[in-house]
């Protein structure tokens, strides 16, 4: 029998000051400790426009477990890269957690509801994808996952970001989390909170010069057992 951990969302957003991991904090604000809400990409940056709150069910924050964050992403129609291969240059981010610039932990691509092979299609035809950066450093160990989400062109266009692709990618990911998506016996309920003040609206410093609206979507995810999976 699979085991699952449950936690409950507290509606007050708390981007706390620097401290060690606490269940009472959604995330630690990177801007307060020398970090950035832009990752490092080609001398510019891509916005960290989605945060999975540390108040989510603990398993959802575990990027290393196949039944953790990856399972949640698969419930939303995303998966690891085609056969686990990434050909591009890794991007890094400084989340103000005491580690400085750290490379992405994973690149997750839209799988078109075709497990394993679907992300190969995305690599060819384009679609939605995101980079995952856990906030787990010694100075700000929230456990929250910061995502740089964007929608990209196909391979012939060198996977450039589509017009308005950062906001579009973010919104499509959030839309996929609506309802109660499920995968491999786990069902997910996601509460969405709009955060302002973390990202500046406009295109200054943004890779490809694509303007953003400055909104970060915070997802607080509760995982429960999907009993229909066992029927």
Written account of the structure:
Keywords: Signal. It contains three helices and twelve strands; from the N terminus they run βββαββββαββαβββ. The chain is α+β, with helices and mostly antiparallel strands and 231 residues long. The chain has one domain. The strands form three sheets. Strands 4-7-8-9-3-12-11-10 form an eight-stranded mixed β-sheet, with helices on both faces.
Number of helices: 3
Class per helix and strand makeup = alpha+beta
Instruction: List the strand order in the largest sheet.
Output: 4-7-8-9-3-12-11-10
Through-space gap between termini: 14 Å
Q: Give the H and E element order.
A: EEEHEEEEHEEHEEE
| Total domain count | 1
Oligomer: single chain
E-strand count = 12
Considering DSSP H and I runs of 4 or more, what fraction of the residues is helical?
Answer: 10-25%
Poorly predicted regions are 1-14, 16-20
| Strand percentage | 15-25%
* Shape estimate: globular
Radius of gyration: 17 Å
The profile of the biggest β sheet is: 8 strands, mixed
| Overall mean confidence score, pLDDT | 88
Signal peptide: 1-15
Keywords: Signal
